[in-house]
Amino acid sequence: MLEGPILASLLKLAVPIVFANILQSAYQLIDAFWVGRLGGQAVAAVSVCTPVIFFLFALGSGFSVAGSTLIAQYIGANRQREADHVTAQTLLMVVIASVILAVLGHLLAPLLLDGLGITDAVRQDALAFLRIALTGTVFTFGFSMCQALLRGAGEVRLPLYIVAGTVGLNVVLDPLFIFGWGAFPALGVAGAALATLVTQGLAFACAVALLARGKLGIRLSWRNMRPDTAVIRRAFSIGTPASIELSARALAMNVMVVLVTGFDTAITAAYGVGMNILGFIVIPALGLSMSTAAVVGQNIGAGLLERARHIARLSGVIAFLTLSIIGVAIFLSAPQLVAVFVPEDPEVIEHGAEFLRVVALTFGFMGFQMVLTGAFRAAGKTLIPMTLTLISQWGVQFPLAFVLSSATPLGGAGIWWAFPITNVATALITWLWFAKGHWLTATLAHEAPTSKQATSDRPA
User: Fold this and answer.
1) Exposed, middle or buried, 205 (CB in 10 Å: 0-12/13-18/19+)?
2) Confidence of residue 359 (pLDDT cuts 50, 70, 90)
3) What's the rounded Cα separation, in Å, for the pair 441 and 29?
4) Quick one: pLDDT at residue 444?
5) Among 164, 155, 159, CA closest to 215
6) What are the respective helix, strand and coil percentages of the chain, to the nearest 5?
7) Fewer C-beta neighbours within 10 Å, C or N terminus of the chain?
8) What is the pTM of this model?
């Protein structure tokens, strides 16, 4: 990662990450596939829960960003002891945060759903799905953190194998829990959430066991679990802007759901299906963004700043071209894609296809912005992505969606048009910020040691 060909280094990490993310997204896609067989109301119930779950997940995800950033830079600087110490501290913090958020979310679930203005026909299924999903956040958070830490250390294959195994199990559990079999009762929409809870719990247990072995570039040990104020402060300084960024994005998604639910159930279901497909489409850019963050972070830790800058530029171009090609394919096959999830609802298919076609040709801009944002995070400059999100989601997308859907003849389609405009505008602002170069000015790994417990290094 520090001396080899840049493209090879990126692809070595990006390809396994992309496949892992594809499989991870398969949880939602498998859920959507089977829930779609229950009808449009069931799809709408899951659709309105997704932004709520993402919002709570975002609140605790800043620690994952902080952990992967620090791990990458410490590994690049050959400071193994600090890397091991950060591993334990950040994993401990994210587990504690996820338990607190799960309890609060479970108690506040009815109020959260009422705030979205959903119909009575959808509310019961949505509440059951949301409460079970929130119960499993400690596993989802924990496994996500383990993946981030391993990614920072350059290990991406084993998380892929874990995800592959648990997704395979989810394929079996989803129809079993949703429709029942023999003495096992049919749980409906709630069954999809329960299947994910079980499989994510297994994934987290496997990841912790692998980290404890200490043969993947970093080691998880009990002696590093005692809370360390120096590490906590540093993780908070990096992670808090990341949490605000992701929370602001998730809150914007919730507000968009409020706009969507102001129309009929077909629009709500179309939005849910469309967002599931979009989440799957951006996976190549997300994988490249994550691999870029790991490679850029290690090069920053090693003091190779110009190489780090070049890696980010190359990744941005690759993401733009890749997602532009995917966008054309989605534009041409939009109705068929939507029909996979809601095969017997022509109205949902029509609205969902319109959504995809409006957005598809700007996928390249979205990918470009995501990759450069990964470079900002690798440098520890999480305030930049936070600011970009606040501008794009709250300064551009939501106001546009509100105006276009309520004050123009577009109606519900006005929400769709806010997406491509936001993608292009955000990509241009991100490029201008990147080109100024001020984001690449400091190396976290060359600052003071993280704690009194981590003042000496051992070879990486």
Assistant:
1) middle
2) very high
3) 41
4) 62
5) 155
6) 80, 0, 20
7) C
8) 0.77
